[in-house]
Amino acid sequence: MSDKDLIESGDMKIGWVRSHMPVLSIIRENFEREQPLKGHKIAMALHVEAKTAALVEALALGGAEVAITGCNPLSTQDDVSVALNTRDNIKCYAKYDCCSDEYYEAINKVLDMKPDITIDDGADLIFKLHTERTDLLSGLLGGCEETTTGIHRLKAMENDGALKMPVVAVNDAMTKFLFDNRYGTGQSSWDGIMRTTNLLVAGKTVVIGGYGWCGKGASLRASGLGADVIVTEIDPIRALEARMDGHRVMSMTEAAKYGDIFVTTTGNVDILSKKHFEVMKDGAILANSGHFNVEINLEELTAMASSVRTVRKNIKEYNVAGKRINVLADGRLVNLAAGDGHPAEVMDMSFANQALCVKYIAETKLENGVHPVPHDLDMYVAELKLKSMGIEIDKLEPHQTEYMEGWECGT
Amino acid sequence: MSDKDLIESGDMKIGWVRSHMPVLSIIRENFEREQPLKGHKIAMALHVEAKTAALVEALALGGAEVAITGCNPLSTQDDVSVALNTRDNIKCYAKYDCCSDEYYEAINKVLDMKPDITIDDGADLIFKLHTERTDLLSGLLGGCEETTTGIHRLKAMENDGALKMPVVAVNDAMTKFLFDNRYGTGQSSWDGIMRTTNLLVAGKTVVIGGYGWCGKGASLRASGLGADVIVTEIDPIRALEARMDGHRVMSMTEAAKYGDIFVTTTGNVDILSKKHFEVMKDGAILANSGHFNVEINLEELTAMASSVRTVRKNIKEYNVAGKRINVLADGRLVNLAAGDGHPAEVMDMSFANQALCVKYIAETKLENGVHPVPHDLDMYVAELKLKSMGIEIDKLEPHQTEYMEGWECGT
Amino acid sequence: MSDKDLIESGDMKIGWVRSHMPVLSIIRENFEREQPLKGHKIAMALHVEAKTAALVEALALGGAEVAITGCNPLSTQDDVSVALNTRDNIKCYAKYDCCSDEYYEAINKVLDMKPDITIDDGADLIFKLHTERTDLLSGLLGGCEETTTGIHRLKAMENDGALKMPVVAVNDAMTKFLFDNRYGTGQSSWDGIMRTTNLLVAGKTVVIGGYGWCGKGASLRASGLGADVIVTEIDPIRALEARMDGHRVMSMTEAAKYGDIFVTTTGNVDILSKKHFEVMKDGAILANSGHFNVEINLEELTAMASSVRTVRKNIKEYNVAGKRINVLADGRLVNLAAGDGHPAEVMDMSFANQALCVKYIAETKLENGVHPVPHDLDMYVAELKLKSMGIEIDKLEPHQTEYMEGWECGT
Amino acid sequence: MSDKDLIESGDMKIGWVRSHMPVLSIIRENFEREQPLKGHKIAMALHVEAKTAALVEALALGGAEVAITGCNPLSTQDDVSVALNTRDNIKCYAKYDCCSDEYYEAINKVLDMKPDITIDDGADLIFKLHTERTDLLSGLLGGCEETTTGIHRLKAMENDGALKMPVVAVNDAMTKFLFDNRYGTGQSSWDGIMRTTNLLVAGKTVVIGGYGWCGKGASLRASGLGADVIVTEIDPIRALEARMDGHRVMSMTEAAKYGDIFVTTTGNVDILSKKHFEVMKDGAILANSGHFNVEINLEELTAMASSVRTVRKNIKEYNVAGKRINVLADGRLVNLAAGDGHPAEVMDMSFANQALCVKYIAETKLENGVHPVPHDLDMYVAELKLKSMGIEIDKLEPHQTEYMEGWECGT
């Protein structure tokens, strides 16, 4: 495609999602009018596709200078990247399927802008800032982190006394994780799997690794598509929840024997590894919806395989002792690497939180460490979202508030 | 029924649930062997039915002297009450359908034992201790509270500086509220409604007041039974969750026009009141699953009604301007007042928490105020439960723990 | 209870369901006005509970003389039976828990009226007419049959050339089996199981024997209540449907090892027998929703058991080699023998078909053999039902009818 | 793409689905060995994508000469078409997005082979044979028809006395319509809608036009994805089913006001037309899953629109009085025109029926008219499918068969 065609395609995609992100649109309008980010430099490492572009636009319109790169080599959409580069005050360095060197070089380029605010999805920028670019730390007001995995990493840093900047845990906003991680991952993972395989979900045994919010969403939609769902967990309480939700629960070593399709959502390594590949059925399909491509141990799988070949776009077949094991999107997050990522409406809420938290960082002196999203921002996002959906809910009447605050009425 | 028949019937009911409460059974065996409650006096106000009896037995076998009464006039099962009174070290004062005076008199009798530990479901004992029986406060090591409503009341007291004893918020244990409030209330409310009405749930418009854990459970089961569900909320985030779960969300004033069956689960007053009764359809059915009978304003309904009559056991028909409005179980919690309460398996987890928290109070010097259930107790209950269900789950391998604790691996 | 109390209780029950059977109510009003059954004598053997009573009343008000008995010893509700006997032109002989002799004696008494029309649920009257009471055959205009099992039996008779009267297969009306067998059995079976056991369905492995309309309904509701469902079948197409609906499918010999609760819905014998009891888990619960109590082989179970005792109302525990196997309602249909039967709204449709078919038999000279319900009656019931629910649907416009009847428009 | 690349891509796609069509694979092996189609000429008009190619290969390997073209201008995948043309005894004339003239010219080319057997999806070949190519009718042994719409058209012809050849209604095999129409259309429609829009289904109001098997499948999956579903129908019985399945049911004129996404599945014209467009909400999304592109009246929509533009691949936005109405895939079947069609596993069953029915036509002298698929073929497909899924089911024991055939056992 020519650059002109890429721009047109990117613009069209961005336009489409923008019209389905009403909360972010309101914030963008406010930003444009009020210029709360005037003079700020924002470095971003996020999945560069249309919804992200809508966030980038809003930040730039709010007065900021923005530089962005990808947070996963396979999730960048080049048309969106090229289109972003046509905007004022925006520089995008992301490229689809770039090699590891290019990937980290792009991160460095983004940081070369000397940002005072960062937005991460997986903490790659912050990690780079704390290792090779420590010179930039002093200039930082704070960062936002988008994903469970990133928060986990940042809290580990904080526990080790290694975190030298304030970070807002955007992922932990209720209007983020309850929706994006659950309904977003739930739908987009299966969208990715269905379009990539053209196989029937109904009547399949689906194994979901992990029953956090992403795993809950993936399981809910697997059931909704007619699958027989098995869940694996390490947390006994989540394991009980999975069972009470009607799923079978067992160890992965056991589940590996039964699964037709596997989806990992844990944020941990080696959820599927040698001992599991050994007992899988011929034709098993493996997909990952976790942030990093570490959940399926492809090194071990490759070592076991007598041959590897592409059998459909985004599907690699590993021949292991006569069995075919099919890996989608090289174990990268299947919803982004083999799809268009989360639906626009959930990213509307997630990125509304991002935009509001960037403003919050710009306006607030935060201590180093991991901070929650202020509850009133969270509620504001929810209220705008409801309004955009045309939904009116009840308000407490004074005597109801009084009852809830009182304690003297009993049986 | 003769006393002998009552005892036999009560014993049979207790025996049945005991064999379906494996976690509590393990704890009971440990208690019997280790006598951790030796010398303690436990005052209880809980729904006196078979599962509660199993808890009472465990506490008494653990060495305690126990006195118990009901926490709702319509939830007592007399056979269970009579059977409990045949046990050593147990005194039960609960009576079905007692009047308000008898109800509070029984609470006083229970307190007359001079307890050092209390167990409440709705905080009635603690309220009495803080008003009329303040002389007993000094002897108290602490109390346990079973329900969301009670916790709410106690936190209101704490905020007012009025709480003069330590209380463990058993309701807030994950192995309690995620299961009891959701799957327990979900099933038992509909069990109560179905057996009381013999009407079809499928194809009905069901309005659920509130989308907390109880409301989520009631909605989930309503959908599972084929209903078209409308949810009302005051919290915008919960309202969004309800919508994303496929339900319609609107104000109660609007929902009141459409509902065939209404179930309130909010813990607040006047969820259904005059303005709602006015617009309801002929034949509407009203049930409450919240702790107190304040959610449906029966005073207003009675004032509006030209006549009230019983049309089936536990169903009162109010004739309002030619429309029939049917109230189940006088607006008392429908699962207990018109059924047998939560399934034994969820009460197994809830009451395992109660038993462990009583021991915890007996062994620990707690400050005045509301305390969480220690996480290790919560996990212990989950682990025993999984084991009793024959479910084995994964354990983290060392390199997985290391990965989760580290932060240096990225994309 | 005194007879007066019984009558009052029965009248109340009948009144309640009558107000929830709007289609039958319209037919009753028409019958009362038009007297289409004037001079006819109708013998009935149906489950004598409130919904059936509403049908009996409609027939009597339509001019008929009606005699009725039960079609299952455990499904009669005595208060309804007594109340029916207070009506003009109605004689009811059914008694709860009567012995086999009484049961057949009552059938004979009903036939003593020399009916010209019969209504059966399971074909017991017709079987008696073709064996011991063949003298009455010549006086018969025809009969109606309510249930799959009865139709099956009658078609077997027809195939053998043994059927000597016309019978209308009311069960096979779409407004009957699609609703009564599916949504009716689905809900009422689980209502019966839940109220009888007070156990949690969520997280249980439920085994459904058969995936006909009753089995589909029972499975749908089991899933809806949070169970993990296994289906057994002998028909490969139904087995595939069950699998595509997300259930596991296997032989009963295999399923018997995993089930916590078993529900049989096949209409055949020995769905659960010795070889299954042998491998069941301790605590397994067995319920039957099929017409006859032949699906669970209690003779074999009794022979295997070292002891049998009642452990809760309507639950017998068989001790088999140290395992407890719990049988609900002695293997009689659990929704009627341990509950109130199908919800009123589905029986409204089933019994509207019955009433209309009785009229059809009265007005039409039918050949001996099994006849379908005329399609226009079926549609009439559906239309009245929709209307009673306040639902308006689309009508074909003339050019749409034309399109559907044409064949000349293509791609 | 070069032809070599197209062939490679097509071969890869065909290889993938072939390995997921185990029943067709067994039939292909039998065909290859037994050559049942030796000397036969088969003309086909089907959606030319990978699953169809697998059928074409099986027929050619069975000895037939095969010519094929598309049955919808937007459902052809050119790589598959080119790859098919590399096979012996196969000629493929289909081209993606061809104009109407090319479309009908290709149909003529296919018929030029002088077939003795036809396979249609929508009856286009048969219609052409009965209008412009009647000379070929005498040479025909019979045809197979794949879809509800085609059967409808053929029965209309039969009723008019216009059908001059035998046709087997493959659509009406239970192993076809219960699976392909329900689970196939259900999944693939939503796959198409999700990948085309990248919008969230959860929390949307989805309107399904029609509640036949396709509509049931589309509704089931919409609910499973978290939508709030409204169904429109003209048949009162289906309308009641939809309501009992928990959906709202109303006229399309009413539903048009509420829908966020509309999916038509009726086989009729003008399901969505001017009066509906007028009341739709801004942003409404319209998709068709019915066979022909007549269900959404695009002519009326175009006439009402002030502008039409492409806003995303396969999405046209019609600006109607300031509202944006988005039409997917120009109202062509969304699962094929904006996706890869049904999952391989359901087409395995549908096309196994096709292959077996072609053989049946080749071996059987059929009368002119529409014939059912012989029941034993249907059962054979089901049995092979179960076997391929590793599922074993129960067999009737002799005494169970006897019971089912007998009629002398009663209560």
TrEMBL record, chains A, B, C, D:
Q: Which UniProt keywords apply?
A: Cytoplasm, Hydrolase, NAD, One-carbon metabolism
Q: Name one GO molecular function term.
A: trialkylsulfonium hydrolase activity
Pathway note? Amino-acid biosynthesis; S-adenosyl-L-methionine biosynthesis
Residues of the S-adenosyl-L-homocysteine hydrolase NAD binding domain? 181-341
The entry marks the following residues as binding NAD(+), namely 147-149, 181, 210-217, 233, 268, 289-291, 335, 342
Q: Name one GO cellular component term.
A: cytosol
Q: Where does substrate bind?
A: 121, 146, 176, 180
Per its UniProt record, the required cofactor names are: NAD(+)
List the Pfam families.
AdoHcyase (PF05221), AdoHcyase_NAD (PF00670)
Name the Enzyme Commission number(s) assigned to this protein: 3.13.1.9
Keyword rRNA-binding in the entry? The reply is no
Which SUPFAM superfamilies does this one have?
Answer: Formate/glycerate dehydrogenase catalytic domain-like (SSF52283), NAD(P)-binding Rossmann-fold domains (SSF51735)
Matching InterPro entries: Adenosylhomocyst_ase-like_sf, Adenosylhomocysteinase-like, Ado_hCys_hydrolase_NAD-bd, NAD(P)-bd_dom_sf, S-Ado-L-homoCys_hydrolase_CS
Q: Which Gene3D superfamilies match?
A: Adenosylhomocysteinase-like, NAD(P)-binding Rossmann-like Domain
Single biological process term from Gene Ontology: S-adenosylmethionine biosynthetic process
**What does the cofactor field's note say?**
Binds 1 NAD(+) per subunit.
Q: Which reaction does it catalyse?
A: S-inosyl-L-homocysteine + H2O = L-homocysteine + inosine
Subcellular location, in the record's words?
Cytoplasm
| Protein function | Catalyzes the hydrolysis of S-inosyl-L-homocysteine (SIH) to L-homocysteine (Hcy) and inosine. Likely functions in a S-adenosyl-L-methionine (SAM) recycling pathway from S-adenosyl-L-homocysteine (SAH) produced from SAM-dependent methylation reactions. Can also catalyze the reverse reaction in vitro, i.e. the synthesis of SIH from Hcy and inosine.
Q: Member of which family?
A: Belongs to the adenosylhomocysteinase family.
More info: SAH is a product of SAM methyltransferases and is known to be a feedback inhibitor of these enzymes. As a result of this inhibition, organisms have evolved efficient enzymes to metabolize SAH via different pathways. The pathway found in methanogens differs from the canonical pathway, it uses the deamination of S-adenosyl-L-homocysteine to form S-inosyl-L-homocysteine for the regeneration of SAM from S-adenosyl-L-homocysteine.
Q: What is this protein called?
A: S-inosyl-L-homocysteine hydrolase
Q: Which organism is it from?
A: Methanococcoides alaskense
